[in-house]
Amino acid sequence: MYTPGDNPQLTGRFAPSPTGPLHMGSLLSALASFLDIKQRGGQWFVRLDDLDPPRQDPAADTQIIASLNVHGLIGDRHNSPDIDYQSDHQIRYAAALSRVQSHLFYCNCSRRSLAGKRIYPGTCRERTAWQTDCAVRLRVDDAEVVFQDELQGSYTYNMASELGDFIVQRRDGLWAYNFAAAVDDGQDVTHVLRGEDLLHVTAQQIYVMQLLELEPPQYAHLPVLCFADGTKLSKQTHAPALNNQNPSVNLRTALLYLGQNPPVEPAWTVSRWLEWGLSNWRMDRIPKRLESYAEST
Ligand SMILES: [Zn+2]
């Protein structure tokens, strides 16, 4: 098997939402984040982003963990659980929220009143005293967030003119994805490798980390796996669940999509494939656009 990390200060993660079983697109993110951080000698863990119960499937977390285990993608964080649940971080998020209190306001704009507006118009900015039945919104400054994505290049966003004030805690009390991910990634992770569909929220997450004086991780955003008609594989688009009976085939297929030129070795075990992946992983081989997903592969 692969050698354990000798760079324990480097940490990567795979952070699925438990909305359904893993599909090939999620395996690409899990495998790429695993190989990338392991090759750097770092540690890896799984974080279940389970902060939106209405959207979740109660069976999904065990399905996801079982599927990752079958594919040899097992966390190895020192002195911390290998599987982390965001729902266990309520105190951490509340503490982070109080640290940015001076940037918060309470928004009761209806979805309808904001329909068609790309940027929040600032309607409730003066409501800085706590109010019930409101979303908590973060007031952004006329400031630039700059980051260098390892796969997608350099990005600069003006927070006020391009992104606007954004929700950190929803009206129903649930934490907003961007806020929770920023609080966790800023404290637990040095490298975030995830799908390109999350590239557009990266600046908001970095902005939260900067307010909290946390060091943002190094980001790399993978091109997303799509069906032949261009729609992304997801639960909503009925992406088929990974077949856990064929993990070696799935790993080879994932390496193929990721441009890593895996050999044809029908007899290789899961650990042999991971070993090959660790020795041969190269970020610069990942194509700008992936081949379309074909279920037979
Ligand atoms: Zn408002």
CATH homolog superfamily: HUPs
Helix content: 25-40%
Number of domains: 1
Instruction: Indicate the CATH topology.
Output: Rossmann fold
* Rg computed from alpha carbons, rounded to a whole number of angstroms: 20 Å
User: How far apart are the termini?
Assistant: 26 Å
* Small molecules held by this entry: zinc ion
CATH class category name: Alpha Beta
Name of the CATH architecture = 3-Layer(aba) Sandwich
Strand content: 15-25%
List the uncertain runs: none
Mean pLDDT: 94
Largest sheet: 3 strands, parallel
Q: What sort of overall outline do the alpha carbons produce when their principal axes are compared?
A: globular
Structural class: alpha/beta
Helix-strand topology string: EHEHEHEHEEEHEHEHEHH
Number of DSSP strand runs: 10
Number of helices: 9
In spatial order, strands of the major sheet run: 1-2-3
Would you write up a description of this structure?
It is a single chain. The chain has helices at 24-39, 60-70, 90-99, 111-114, 159-163, 177-188, 202-211, 247-257, 270-280, and strands at 11-14, 43-48, 83-85, 104-107, 135-138, 144-149, 153-158, 166-169, 191-195, 218-222. It is α/β, with parallel strands linked by helices. The protein has one domain: HUPs (Rossmann fold, 3-Layer(aba) Sandwich), CATH 3.40.50. The strands form four sheets. Strands 1-2-3 form a three-stranded parallel β-sheet, covered by helices on one side. Helix 1 crosses helix 9 (270-280) and helix 8 runs parallel beside helix 9. It is globular, with a radius of gyration of 20 Å. 38% of the residues are buried.
